[in-house]
Specification:
Layout lengths: L2 H17 L3 H14 L4 E9 L7 E7 L8 E4 L5 H8 L2 H8 L3 E5 L11 H6 L4 E8 L11 E8 L7 H35 L1 H8 L8 E13 L2 H7 L2 H21 L3 E6 L2 E6 L4 H28 L7 E16 L4 E6 L1 H16 L3 E4 H5 L3 H4 L2 E8 L6 E7 L2 H4 L1 H12 L1
């Protein structure tokens, strides 16, 4: 590839990296431009470590022929099981173990090599294989994201020429920098979504990071905490506590997200969430839908845990509606994007009252009154109560026992929630 062509491709990579072109599109555009300049690539794979609670890394593929392989994928831990064995047989692992940055393989030698996937590439007509490992410096690493791996093949009988190898040595680091830049944006979004919640993450990444910048909104608030979690935690081994909490947090959070809510905060085994929208009656219905989904999730979870001989529980849930301040609150060097206000205090008190009245769901009078007539049919009053720290007494409501006891009523309620 001529110097002017290489410079043009470097400029393209730089420009597209700055505009935020997705990683798979960067790789596709790179390979197609290489081929247009006579560098006959047949397959490319780029893998980069990531910072994610589930995945260890992400990979991106390109091929000169149509296939059913996805052009982007994520993978879990390579520390154990089949994944570990596959990783230890890879060219990349061999390169790391021996301190190599580059490795060239004539695929005619594949039968004599004990590397994973090399034989498959030879069977599919690829002739020559080039692999790179580009390590990030200490200041360029982010958690486990400290390497970019790539491999390149050609079907040409003579393999890559020395000039083509030199071109790839010049160009692949620029491609890697563009992919690393895109990955860092993905990581920021992932960490924001995981640690702040979906709505708060969008606000922060959208630029609302100034201390004290809040918005006054009306919201349906959800507060839940687990039944008997302290006693259960004291009765099980220390290594079982986190899996126990994670199982039930998953059941709660999945239900809230599936119903369109936003989880704001995890407080021990408690969850604070909100449901918003222009139609607050719909937001109330979404909260009830989340509560119903949670009960279904818990029923399935408890069945699995019982089969494994592990302790089970459920949760107390409080629902309330009111105005809150939503935004950045805290000190100059430690901010929290959350909601504050009397409504938040009240919903936590309502959830606590669930223990006293032995009901797993309690909703405030404000929540009840704002439901449509169809929704109010499914709630009944548990009595009038003065909540701790709240000056006025109010009626609190729970689901009519008939919702669980009568199949026709259950079906009617589920249709209401789905409508």
């Amino acid at each position: 590839m001529q110097l002017t062509s290489r410079l043009a491709l470097m400029n393209w990579l730089t420009g597209q990296g700055l505009t935020g072109l997705p990683e798979n599109e960067l790789l596709r555009g790179f390979c197609e431009r290489c081929r247009a300049e006579g560098l006959e690539l047949s397959r490319a794979l780029v893998v980069i470590d990531t910072l994610h609670p589930i995945y260890e890394g992400r990979g991106f593929r390109w091929s000169d022929r149509a296939s059913n392989e996805s052009d982007a994928f994520e993978y879990g831990s390579t520390a154990e099981g089949d994944a570990a064995q596959h990783w230890r047989r890879s060219v990349f692992f061999h390169m790391l173990e021996h301190g190599h940055d580059e490795m060239v393989i004539d695929l005619a030698d594949a039968p004599s090599l004990d590397f994973s996937q090399i034989g498959e590439l030879a069977e599919k007509g690829h002739k020559h294989y080039l692999a790179f490992v580009h390590r990030f410096g200490e200041n360029g690493a982010l958690g486990l994201m400290d390497c970019l791996y790539s491999c390149w093949t050609t079907r040409r009988d003579g393999g890559f020429s020395e000039a083509e190898l030199e071109s790839l040595r010049d160009l692949v680091p620029v491609l890697g920098l563009a992919i690393k830049s895109a990955q860092q944006v993905d990581i920021a979004r992932t960490l924001g979504r995981v640690y702040l919640g979906r709505g708060a993450s969008e606000q922060v990444l959208g630029g609302r990071i100034s201390r004290g910048v809040t918005e006054r909104i009306k919201a349906v608030l959800w507060y839940s905490d687990l039944r008997g979690s302290t006693g259960i935690s004291e009765s099980i081994g220390p290594d079982e506590i986190i899996p126990f909490l994670n199982d039930y947090a998953q059941a709660v959070i999945d239900a809230i997200h599936d119903a369109g809510g936003d989880v704001l905060k995890l407080i021990g085994d408690g969850v604070l969430a909100m449901f918003t929208g222009e139609d607050m009656a719909q937001a109330r219905r979404a909260a009830l839908r989340a509560e119903h989904l949670f009960r279904q999730n818990v029923a399935a979870l408890n069945k699995r845990r019982e089969a494994d001989g592990r302790p089970t529980t459920s949760a107390y849930i409080g629902l309330h509606v009111g105005e809150v301040f939503y935004g950045n609150i805290g000190s100059e060097d430690r901010l929290d994007f959350t909601v504050v206000g009397p409504t938040v205090n009240e919903v936590s008190r309502i959830a606590s009252m669930s223990r006293s009245v032995d009901r797993e769901l309690l909703a405030s009078a404000e929540f009840y009154k704002g439901l449509d007539a169809a929704g109010r049919r499914y709630l009944v009053s548990t009595g009038r109560y003065a909540l701790r720290g709240i000056g006025r007494a109010q009626d609190l409501y729970t689901l009519d026992p008939e919702v669980d006891a009568s199949e026709p009523v259950t079906g009617s309620y589920e249709r209401y929630l789905a409508s």
